[in-house]
Specification:
four-stranded antiparallel β-sheet, 7 helices, 8 strands, 4 domains, 434 Repressor (Amino-terminal Domain), single chain, alpha+beta, 317 residues, 37% helix
Length: 317
Amino acid sequence: MSDEESPQQEETPLTVGRKLWNARDEKGLDRQSVADQLHLRPGIIAAIEEDNHDALPGELFLKGYVRSYARLLGLDEESLLSDLEGELAPRRQAQESQQEPSPTEVIQQRRERRRRIGNLVALVAAVVLAVWLIYAFGPFVAEQASELTDDTGDAVPEEPAEVNGDEPAEDASLEEEPVPAEPEEADPVDEPQTRAPGLETPVATVTPPPAQEPDSGIESREIEVTEPEQDLVEVSLSIDFDGECWVEVVNGAGERVVVRLATAGDRIDYVGPGPLEVLLGSVNAVTELRFMGEPVDLGAYPAPAGRAQFVLEAETG
């Protein structure tokens, strides 16, 4: 009899973990032998059989483990996965409300934040430029407008010379000459009632001085706002395996370019835009991982329950 006791039969339907547990006992296998054949740790086998989903890396890896476990025991894979989907539904709903963003989502949020900052800087620069133009050229524009108004306005005639009342004889001897009629204007000025006969009213002609551009003392400078460019760098990735391992790779464009279950002897090669978000379900099954032709030390990344998730980004500059 194995060191793990078989679960007792209950009236309620058996969970996926208990079905696998019973099938393993029927074949006379222990958890250690199953873990060796699946290239997993015995703790993961125990978590699957005991329905301790929180101890596993995630739903994607859990489904891959269950599929491999069912195939090893000769059980119906699709039926078990369908039952597992129903068991995970309540847990998934609880996690969706507090799920943290993935590294790819964090990168996209940073790009969007930089884009908004660039737009804000451009708006502020445009406002500053407009204020400076008003300050530098506002008086000049007002002066030009005033001169244009004066040029199109009415000329005011000078007051006629008064006639001396002490010399009526001289005035009587003067021949009266017709006074030329003045053109009608939009706003005529009232003529004085007393005008000396034979004298024309002189009209003053005012010539405006040439307009000079005021010296504001401020040099005109062009303000150029350049939005930071977000160029994607092409990178390469190569992974070799000696056991089963679930693999996901998301490139710098947010595309999920690799989603598969690698087996012993498999090799995954990818060339595309970086950075790359890599997810490995079983780090122990990876013999070598190269990024940009250089080997990557997987021991530098945390791998709870044998699962590692990290971002590889090419150095620039």
